[in-house]
Structure formats: structure tokens, C-alpha cells
Amino acid sequence: MNQTSSTSDFSHPALLLIDLQAGFFEDPALAKSRAQVAANCNRLAAAANAAGIPVISMRTVHKQDKSTWTLKMLEDGQGYLFEGTGKAAYLPELQLQDAIEVIKRRDSAFWNTELTDLLLVRRANSLVIAGVSSDTCISATAADAFAANLPVAVAVDATASGDPDFESSTLEFMRKQHRQKLLETDQIISQWKPEKE
User: Fold this and answer.
1) Contact at 8 Å (CB) between 162 and 29?
2) Which class for 120: exposed (0-12), middle (13-18), buried (19 or more C-beta within 10 A)?
3) Facing residues of 17 across strands?
């Protein structure tokens, strides 16, 4: 994350944690990655807090009256992640007490949310993204960040997907086409200096 070009300017990042919710990790493929993803997201959040970097946690929540449902949900006649349910809740092992929560209704964290305003107020010029799933919500959010001229680094060991092959090709597309960084949690944390007491 050296500041050598516009896609590498991470001088004022925000950490964006996406969909770390119980319902998503019911998928057997995601369940295998749960411990690693949760642990690394906790490490990222703690390091970000220590460095004065904003931590924003996106959570997908839908209404049972179908007013927030996606086209696929409407077509299938089946919703999920309803308000107030255990499936919509965070994984209990997460330590996000200092995070700013934003509710989203679609894959992209930018779609019809206050995320852009939060980033502007906090003068964030880049994003570090972690969570699930790499080939859906993370890639959609990263694409919108690219459109907004926000450099992105994905913490690849703090993300997961139910389709590892699609995940691999999606991450490679992000790296090549959008010049987004694919980094390990340790690499990211090493760039964040704790604020002086």
C-alpha cells in the first residue's frame, strides 16, 4: 500500500466489513472459513481502532413485507435476513463495538446507503474491505468504489466465498481491471501505525 500511484494511495483509509452475519455462514463452504474470517476481521478492526481509522460494518437486513427484496428474492418468493432474526445478527465472536453500522439492502455497500457520506465526513480516500462474499457483495462494493475513484485493498484471508473457483476469478478480475490490491491481514495491519497516546 505504498503511495506510488492513485490506485495505491491509502493515506486515509476506512475499514469496511461486509455481511459478517450468522445467516451467510450457514452455507457449508462459508462455515469452513468462519473462524479464520472472524478472527482476521477482529484483528483488522482492533488495528484500525488503534490507528484512528474508521471501521464501518455493513449488515444486510430485509423487511418481511417484501418492500426491500431483490429481484431474485421476489422471483423466488423467498426472502432472508429479516429484521430482528438470528440470521440477520452478527456472528457472536465478532468484536465490533466501536464500528459504525450501516444497513444495506443490495450487494453493493454503496447502493442507497449513507456510506459515501460517512467516507466524506471522515475524509477517507480509500477502502480496506473484508467479509463475505468475495464474488458477490465484496466485488460489487469494490466495483462501485472504483467508479468513485476510491482505491481498494481486499484482505484476502479475511474474506470467503461459497464458490472458491468463482472467488478466484473474481479477485483476479479486481486486481487486473480495477488495480485493486489483494493483501493478507498482516500486510495491511503492518501499514497502520497506532495513534500516539
Assistant:
1) yes
2) exposed
3) 57, 130
C-alpha–C-alpha distance, residues 168 and 72, integer Å? 24
Q: Grid coordinates standing for 90?
A: 452478527
Q: Rounded CA gap, 154 and 188, in Å? A: 9
Whether residue 133 is preceded by a cis peptide bond, meaning omega within 30 degrees of 0, is yes
Tell whether the model's pLDDT for residue 189 goes beyond 90.
yes
pLDDT for res 6: 72
Tell me how long the chain is. 197
Q: Three-class SS of residue 157?
A: strand
Q: Which residue has the cell 490506485?
A: 7
Short-list 133, 177, 132, 169, CA closest to 152: 177
pTM above 0.85, yes or no: yes
Query: How far is residue 43's CA from residue 155's CA, in Å, rounded to a whole number?
Result: 11
C-beta of residue 24 within 8 angstroms of C-beta of residue 132: yes
Q: Are 158 and 33 in contact (CB under 8 A)?
A: no
CA distances from 11 to 2, 97, 103, 124, 151 (A): 9, 25, 26, 8, 10
Beta bridge partners of 182: 154
Residue 45 host element (H or E) = helix 28-50
